[in-house]
Amino acid sequence: xxxxxxxxxxxxxxxxxxxxxxxxxxxxxxxxxxxxxxxxxxxxxxxxxxxxxxxxxxxxxxxxxxxxxxxxxxxxxxxxxxxxxxxxxxxxxxxxxxxxxxxxxxxxxxxxxxxxxxxxxxxxxxxxxxxxxxxxxxxxxxxxxxxxxxxxxxxxxxxxxxxxxxxxxxxxxxxxxxxxxxxxxxxxxxxxxxxxxxxxxxxxxxxxxxxxxxxxxxxxxxxxxxxxxxxxxxxxxxxxxxxxxxxxxxxxxxxxxxxxxxxxxxxxxxxxxxxxxx
Length: 278
Known about the structure:
The protein is an all-alpha fold. It has helices at 3-8, 18-27, 34-42, 45-55, 69-76, 78-94, 107-124, 131-140, 143-151, 154-165, 171-179, 183-193, 198-206, 216-233, 240-250, 254-266, 268-275.
């Protein structure tokens, strides 16, 4: 299956809104310009409304109502605004049912947000500057599944599901054998088409096969994916050897990883708050 031809026929997976792209670019700079951030948020009514709604949500429970965007930015902080910008920009794309992967509406989005949280924590262990990139890559790591789910006919979806269930094949192997491509490759191609930074594209492409690259981010997102599955279901999808290899590749000891698993599990309430902000 030709990936470019596949993407050309995909419907309803539009690129991020220009205001969201501008905001993410500003928030990824080492020295964030508060006035420029405010100007971008003010230019997008939806983003402004969601920012105020999040600041006033029960999860954040402000001592008094947050009534201005300036207050919301101050109260939430740039990291929360970064998360929200991605959530607003992608919720319409990613908060949908992925029948070909046995995922109900919302389940895919929750897993993506959990992986983003883990990616932020793991990448942030390299450097605080790397945390937002880890969040973005984690959020987008499985977006290729939505492309394949939309494009494939029911017979192809069923064939992939059977290969996973009956033959015990990993999802990536089943996709590759039957479709001659896989969700990581397709997702990376889509993000490249959207002009996302190359290191994010690369991490998405290799998050299931980090041994094929020396990129530390790919290993971080592979580990984050396992952490998200573990937090949600108690099963990581990584065997002990794979997990240990990824920990060594990102330079993390097991005690630190256990701490991160606890933080990811504790973030479920926050994630549910963001996930419902459509």
